[in-house]
């Protein structure tokens, strides 16, 4: 089942809304909520717009729409179709209610009142074993989107990729600094070579000019 949901701004990972979880859920999902924050920080314009990230017994499903990230934590066995249909419902309602305000928000959890809609919608998307009857489940299955092309990753892959990107960024910065140092050194070597090449000629020219000036003036 859907256990917890957070909505954040994609451009800077500012949290906009989240479900109000009970103490037990908060304790159980503490590690995975930290992973959710990591995912928010790692999101870039080139990130997959929809993705499932598996971590232990849970999966973190996210959807990006209009500079907003919708992320929910659910058991790994929870159907991905239900998870992404749930997120799609949230995205439509959130965009309708707050879409024009998202970019101007400065304080976190400015739309905390959206919890009411998230809790109500989550109840409609319970696990198939507790979906409230076959008719309700058939109705949901008929409306669900195709998720076969949505990428699935694991948290270890995400962490490794993030570390690698950090290392590559550091390496790129170091190479850039070394390249600048090389260009400066090469420029100085060229200047020194020109001085050594033309200094004798310049000295002779000066001597000739002085001699001519002294002889005729």
List the helices and strands and how they pair.
Elements: E1 2-9, E2 15-18, H1 23-28, H2 30-42, E3 50-55, E4 58-65, E5 68-75, H3 80-98, H4 115-124, H5 134-143, E6 151-154, H6 155-216
Parallel strand pairs: 3-6
Antiparallel strand pairs: 1-2, 1-5, 3-4, 4-5
Helix pairs in contact: 3-4
Structure summarized in a few sentences:
InterPro entries: Longin-like_dom_sf, Longin_dom, Sec22, V_SNARE_CC. This is Protein transport protein SEC22. The protein has 217 residues and is α+β, with helices and mostly antiparallel strands.
Describe this entry's structure for a reader.
- This protein is of the alpha+beta class and 217 residues long.
- It has a domain at 2-149: Beta-Lactamase (2-Layer Sandwich).
- It is built from 6 helices and 6 strands; from the N terminus they run ββααβββαααβα.
- The protein has helices spanning 23-28, 30-42, 80-98, 115-124, 134-143, 155-216, and strands at 2-9, 15-18, 50-55, 58-65, 68-75, 151-154.
- A 6-stranded mixed sheet has the order 2-1-5-4-3-6, with helices on both faces.
- The protein is elongated, with a radius of gyration of 31 Å.
- It starts with a strand and ends with a helix.
- Residues 129-135 and 163-172 have low confidence and may be disordered.
- GO terms for molecular function: SNAP receptor activity.
- Its main location: endoplasmic reticulum.
- It is found in: Endoplasmic reticulum membrane; Golgi apparatus membrane.
């Amino acid at each position: 089942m859907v256990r917890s949901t957070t909505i954040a701004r994609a451009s800077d990972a500012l949290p906009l809304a989240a479900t109000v979880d009970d103490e037990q859920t908060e304790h159980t999902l503490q590690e995975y909520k930290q992973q959710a924050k990591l995912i928010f920080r790692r999101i870039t314009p080139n990130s997959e717009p929809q993705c499932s990230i598996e971590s232990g017994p849970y999966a973190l499903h996210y959807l990006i729409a209009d500079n907003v990230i919708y992320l929910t934590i659910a058991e790994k066995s929870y159907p991905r179709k239900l998870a992404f249909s749930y997120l799609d419902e949230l995205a439509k309602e959130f965009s309708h209610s707050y879409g024009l305000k998202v970019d101007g928000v400065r304080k976190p959890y400015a739309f905390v009142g959206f919890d009411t809609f998230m809790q109500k919608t989550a109840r409609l998307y319970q696990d198939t074993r507790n979906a409230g009857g076959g008719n309700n489940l058939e109705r949901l299955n008929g409306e669900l989107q195709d998720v076969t092309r949505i990428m699935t990753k694991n948290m270890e892959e995400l962490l490794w990729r993030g570390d690698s990107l950090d290392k590559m960024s550091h390496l790129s910065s170091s190479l850039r600094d070394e390249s600048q140092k090389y260009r400066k050194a090469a420029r100085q070597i060229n200047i020194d070579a020109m001085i050594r090449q033309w200094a004798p000629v310049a000295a002779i020219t000066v001597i000739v000019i002085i001699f001519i000036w002294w002889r005729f003036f």
